[in-house]
Design brief:
By secondary structure, the chain is mainly beta. It has a domain at 2-62: Sandwich (Hypothetical Protein Aq_1857, Chain: A). 5% of the residues lie in helices and 47% in strands. The chain has 1 helix and 8 strands, in the order αββββββββ. A 6-stranded mixed sheet has the order 3-4-1-2-8-7. Strands 5-6 form a two-stranded antiparallel ribbon. The longest helix has 5 residues, at 2-6.
């Protein structure tokens, strides 16, 4: 993650993780590099990385684990949500 932040064109204070409507299972995860937190964000520090979470996404991200996979099948972020009732094959969409 640090290499994405270091390579960004604008200053980056952390990573936003959010849940929005959409995807094949009804809700989807979103990631974005951010210049800073919003006033109502929760800020979680994981080593050198700050993660910003908005109040609406926070309960849907409870106990979620995010991993970065780099394999022959492709690379990208993988979300593991033990609270999801269903999820799609890509792992980026779920229903609560």
């Amino acid at each position: 993650m640090s290499r994405f932040i270091a390579g960004a064109e604008t200053p980056v204070a952390g990573l936003r993780i959010q849940v929005t409507g959409g995807g094949c299972s009804g809700m989807q995860y979103g990631l974005a590099l951010e210049e800073g937190p919003r006033s109502d964000d929760s800020v979680v520090e994981i080593g050198p990385i700050k993660v910003f979470v908005d109040p609406a996404s926070a309960p849907l991200l409870n106990e979620v684990t995010v991993d970065f996979l780099d394999s022959m099948d492709g690379s990208g972020f993988k979300f593991y949500n033990p609270n999801a009732k269903a999820s799609c094959g890509c792992g980026n969409s779920f229903s609560a």
